[in-house]
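hey team, just a heads up i'm posting the complex here instead of the shared drive bc the drive is being weird again. everything in one block, sequence lines first with there labels, then the predicted structure for the whole assembly after. its two chains so it's a bit long, scroll down
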Amino acid sequence: MGESITFWVLAVVSVAAALGLVFSRKAVYSALMLGVVMLSLAVLYAVQDAPFLAAVQIIVYTGAVMMLFLFVLMLVGVDSSDSLVETIRGQRFWAIVGGLGFAVLLALGIGNAVVGSPKGLTAATQGGNVPSLAELIFTRHVFAFEVTSALLITAALGAMVLAHRERTTPKPTQRDLSRQRFIAFGKTGKNPAPLPGPGTYARHNAIDMPALLPDGSISPLSVNRYIARYEEARGTLSPEIARVLEQEETEQQRLNGHGTPTVAEEAADAGPDTEPMPEESVVAGRVAGPRGESAGESRSEEDGK
Amino acid sequence: MTTHYLVLSALLFAIGGVGVLVRRNAIVVFMCVELMLNACNLAFVTFARQNGNLDGQLIAFFVMIVAAAEVVVGLAIIVTIFRTRRSASVDDASLLKN
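-- predicted structure starts here --
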């Protein structure tokens, strides 16, 4: 009785989760649904006199394999959602029809097969489940077990070889980065120093408080543009900051006629690519992060303004 | 009860198969393959109890090991493909076509 209640609850949960895995648009939801299926299967193993397999299922699948999936998902980009374009016409429809047909066929075949009541494992596991399994593994199936270890080592080596990446250019030192910043300063007049932190000399050090210059006026470099835009939309932007931003904007428009970019303008439209980087290293920085320190630096500069 | 377990296993296997055919994201395709392997394991464990023989559980154990190795190598391949092609879609890796 208890077993059938467990079965029906877990069967409904696992089939629903499996459908969610297939049909959810976001890959992270799919991963979580797969975790639900694996956990319910672990409980089903435990119900069916396989406590060792239940433990291994939780440790290996929900522990290791799911974590690996989530790691790769985060690395490859969570937002890499599926394309809705069907490359083969009608493929989706026929796949679902085929899957339904396959399920019905299997279910009918199994339903028609005459199975007696289960023999149970009490006779086979005289000394407990784990010792009996161990006896089988280390006597009759010892060769397969040894081959398994070779397989695991090969897989680990293969993963290391596949994921390894040789550095083709030397890693830029702080000296190189500083030189780059000053070359940029000479060419475009871009401010080589870090941007003033928010709240420097101001009454508060919150991110939405602009820094004050020594004469008490607001430094336009330190105004957080995102917060300013948000506050402007809500109508809570303080009049002083609005005035400073407006002044800066008119000055920029005046200067743009002459075609010389100002420091403020340069800082205003500085995106994540603050430093002139070759295309290749930008790509590398997003995946493996060999230029992680420079990316972090430009980000902190961006935050600072 | 054995029949119920086997039908559940068949359902999960079919759902996984549909997922492999329908989804285009390589990682999700991999997850669906894992689902199919898990469904097979459930059938193995069920048959082990039905026949009073521990070999079914042992096979399920080996399937888990092979699946873990397969996931490691497969995900490494996906990461490598993503690095060169900037995409995890199975449609984009079609250099061997024609």
